[in-house]
Design goal:
The chain is mainly alpha-helical. It has one domain. It contains 2 helices and 2 strands. Strands 1-2 form a two-stranded antiparallel sheet. The N and C termini lie far apart (73 Å).
């Protein structure tokens, strides 16, 4: 239930941000922007819509890259935990098998001891 609420909240926030950017572009589509490039020592003029779309796309791609990085790290941690859990489980099973084998040996020795005592 909690995961569904988180997903719904995430989608809702994405839609609100996208709608805000779309409204900003719609109301400022005809405006021009001038900016100074210090490397080239020139002033450039472009439409505001192009800068907004470029920044939105760059932010979206950066967000996807960051999420992919975090997901890969989380997957690595989950796999390491799963391996550790399997190793503990295997060691536990080996110990149970060793105990069963020792109990069988003890029973065999007790039976041999009883038969030796009866023969005396």
């Amino acid at each position: 239930m909690k995961k569904n609420i988180e997903k719904l909240l995430y989608i809702l926030i994405n839609l609100i941000v996208f709608a805000g950017i779309a409204l900003f572009i719609y109301f400022n589509a005809s405006r021009s922007v001038e900016f100074f490039c210090p490397l080239m020592q020139r002033t450039f003029s472009t439409k505001l819509i192009y800068l907004t779309i470029i920044h939105f796309a760059a932010a979206y791609i950066a967000g996807i890259a960051i999420c992919a990085f975090i997901k890969s790290k989380t997957d690595e941690l989950c796999n390491a935990y799963q391996k550790r859990h399997e190793n503990i489980s295997i060691a536990k099973d080996e110990n149970v098998a060793k105990i069963a084998a020792l109990e069988a040996k003890i029973e065999t020795l007790e039976a041999a001891l009883e038969s030796a005592l009866k023969n005396m």
